[in-house]
């Protein structure tokens, strides 16, 4: 599945009579893609379309030959999503239990599940948090645990909606470095223009439309001139 691209074909979406995404046509083939835009420009709507959480009113979102309208469950196994609000994604009492939660659907033995959880916690540098109660973690720790819960499923594509929100400078740097080192494709909504400068492509949305799309240098400088 790794070589299969997410594509939006003539995607438009309306909520409560308002058009929030307009005629989006995108093939998301680069390894690191940033999505920028002012508040309310449709960034969260767009990324929620990518794993079938939102099925657009018009057009299609595809992963390879599969459309989210018909194969959302399959697509979700390949497209991991980290939401803006971490609280929505943390549901079990301890870190290890929370990270193991999604693995229940994979029919692994107890030992295999533990090994997978230990490995991902170590990769993210948070093995020491394994037995801590989720409720007692800092905002940054919670975000890393959320990320671990998604990465443990080994998705091919990772979609993150403003993952740096609430993190201090040190935590931002740790998360930034870890994200850049991941083997997965990363599609990330962010206001951190300096960070996105290291990506392969940046797409800018304005009022639900793609208004800029290209290299980080070209998109970000034009963005600052027009909307910054
Ligand atoms: N449930 C809803 N009902 C009506 N309108 C909604 C709903 N959810 C989102 N919208 C509207 O859709 C538009 C796009 O919202 P979206 O959350 O995608 O913006 P965003 O670019 O992610 O913003 P932010 O940077 O503030 O997170 C906004 O105008 C928002 O008010």
Automatic annotation (TrEMBL):
InterPro entries assigned to the protein according to its UniProt record, in alphabetical order: AAA+_ATPase, ABC_transporter-like_ATP-bd, ABC_transporter-like_CS, ABC_transpr_CbiO/EcfA_su, ECF_ABC_transporter_ATP-bd, P-loop_NTPase
Subcellular location: Cell inner membrane
Classification via CDD domains: ABC_cobalt_CbiO_domain1 (cd03225)
Any one GO molecular-function label of the UniProt entry: ATP binding
Superkingdom, natural source: Bacteria
Gene3D superfamilies: P-loop containing nucleotide triphosphate hydrolases (3.40.50.300)
Key words, A-Z: ATP-binding, Nucleotide-binding, Transport
Keyword Transmembrane appears in the UniProt entry: no
ABC transporter domain location: 6-228
Pfam families: ABC_tran (PF00005)
Family the UniProt entry places it in: Belongs to the ABC transporter superfamily.
PROSITE patterns referenced in this protein's UniProt entry, alphabetically: ABC_TRANSPORTER_1 (PS00211), ABC_TRANSPORTER_2 (PS50893)
Protein name stated in the entry: Energy-coupling factor ABC transporter ATP-binding protein
Keyword ATP-binding: yes
Major localization class: membrane
SMART domains per record: AAA
């Amino acid at each position: 599945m790794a070589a299969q691209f997410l594509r939006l074909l003539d995607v438009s979406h309306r909520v409560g009579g308002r058009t929030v995404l307009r005629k989006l046509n995108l093939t998301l083939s680069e390894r690191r893609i940033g999505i920028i835009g002012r508040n309310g420009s449709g960034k969260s709507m767009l990324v929620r379309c990518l794993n079938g959480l939102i099925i657009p009113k018009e057009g299609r979102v595809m992963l390879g030959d599969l459309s989210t309208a018909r194969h959302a469950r399959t697509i979700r196994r390949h497209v991991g999503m980290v939401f803006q609000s971490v609280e929505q994604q943390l549901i079990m009492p301890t870190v290890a239990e929370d990270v193991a939660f999604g693995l229940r659907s994979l029919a692994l033995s107890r030992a295999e599940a533990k090994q997978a959880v230990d490995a991902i916690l170590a990769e993210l540098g948070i093995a020491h948090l394994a037995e801590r109660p989720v409720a007692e973690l800092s905002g940054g720790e919670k975000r890393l645990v959320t990320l671990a819960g998604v990465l443990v499923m080994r998705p091919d594509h990772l979609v993150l909606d403003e993952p740096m929100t609430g993190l201090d400078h040190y935590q931002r740097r740790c998360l930034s470095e870890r994200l850049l080192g991941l083997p997965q494709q990363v599609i990330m909504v962010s206001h951190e223009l300096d960070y996105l400068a290291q990506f392969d492509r940046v797409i800018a949305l304005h009022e639900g439309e793609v208004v800029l799309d290209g290299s980080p240098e070209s998109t970000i400088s034009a963005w600052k001139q027009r909307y910054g």
